[in-house]
Amino acid sequence: MYTEAALPESELRKRVQQRIKEGRLPVAFVRLVNDGAGAGGHACPVCDQPVKRDKVEYDIDPRNANHHLVFHYPCYLIWQRVCARRIRAGERADLGDQQR
Ligand SMILES: [Zn+2]
């Protein structure tokens, strides 16, 4: 199941951890908005590569249109796996309201 991700899984996991620390990705389980073939133009928040196909779109915060992220499917899976581990470890799930 290796589609568009340009980086090995270990590197992606490292980037996810870093994005979470920077506040660019929330620690949360998110709701699927849309998946399927994309027109491109969005940069994946995990690997910074443009998402052209096999994209997965997620609404991070339904109240805020700017919190709409588009991931590569493998990047999304790794992000959610990291979130699951952190949430299980007791970190509060939030929806991008940190640093306020
Ligand atoms: Zn990606």
Question: Which features characterize this protein?
Answer:
single chain; 100 residues; alpha+beta; two-stranded antiparallel ribbon; 2 helices; 5 strands; disordered C terminus; binds zinc ion
Tell me what you see in this structure.
With 100 residues, this protein is an alpha+beta fold. The protein has a domain at 26-88. Helices cover 30% and strands 20% of the residues. It has 2 helices and 5 strands, in the order αβββββα. It has helices at 9-22, 73-88, and strands at 31-36, 42-43, 50-51, 55-59, 68-72. Strands 1-4-5 form a 3-stranded antiparallel beta sheet. A two-stranded antiparallel ribbon has the order 2-3. A hairpin with an 8-residue loop joins β4 and β5. The radius of gyration is 13 Å and the shape is globular. The chain starts with 8 loop residues before the first helix and ends in a 12-residue tail after the last helix. Residues 96-100 have low confidence and may be disordered. The site of zinc ion has 8 residues, from β5.
Brief characterization of the structure:
With 100 residues, the protein is of the alpha+beta class. Helix content is 30%, strand content 20%.
Q: Outline, from the CA principal axes?
A: globular
Q: What's the count of strands? A: 5
Query: What structural class do helix, strand and pairing data support?
Result: alpha+beta
Average of per-residue pLDDT values? 74
Poorly predicted spans: 96-100
Output the radius of gyration: 13 Å
- What small ligands are held by the chains? zinc ion
Strand content: 15-25%
N- to C-terminal distance: 38 Å
Biggest beta sheet summary = 3 strands, antiparallel
One letter per element, helices H and strands E, the order comes to HEEEEEH
- Helix coverage percent: 25-40%
Widest sheet, order of strands: 1-4-5
Number of helical regions: 2
